[in-house]
Amino acid sequence: MKKVLLEMEDQKNSYEQKAKESLQKVLEEKMNAEQQLQSTQRSLALAEQKCEEWRSQYEALKEDWRTLGSQHRELESQLNVLQSKLQGADSRDLQMNQALRFLENEHQELQAKIECLQGDRDLCSLDTQDLQDQLKRSELEKLTLVTRVQQLQSLLQNQSLQLQEQEKLLTKKGQQIYYHKF
After folding, report:
1. Positive or negative torsion for Cα 171, 176, 179, 182
2. CA–CA distance, 66 with 5 (Å, rounded to integer)
3. Which residues form a coiled coil (predicted)?
4. What is the pLDDT of residues 6-32, one digit of tens each?
5. SS3 string of 115-136?
């Protein structure tokens, strides 16, 4: 009986030791999981902060594009006024030279404005490309930024097409002024 009791005591001690080891392992795993959770929460907070920074930059860039669009429309309006003046200038013989000089000066000013806008567009394009690269790197952190980048790219393409149309109109206008002069 003693032998059986001793064996049972040994088994009990062995089970208790295994239970302690298992409990210790579970506690260690729990601590590791809590540390990983805290680390993940910090990463999430950083990702959300970055997302907010990108959103802020995106909104500022979008506002810049609105301003450029407004300037573009104003230039188109001025160009339409110039075209109307040129059509009316054909019927005025004595005033034609003075009006033509006036229109040429305005055309040069518009060309300078267009070149300035093109420079702004190039700068905005570089800024936008940098922003797109940064947004692509953070896609895993915030998937919602993908939609905003696509919207920004579409806006850039539309603005570029509008500026190209304006360049074509101004080039055509410049040729008309040149031909009317001679």
Report:
1. negative
2. 89
3. 1-120
4. 899 999 999 999 999 999 999 999 999
5. HHHHHHHHHHHHHHHHHHHHHH
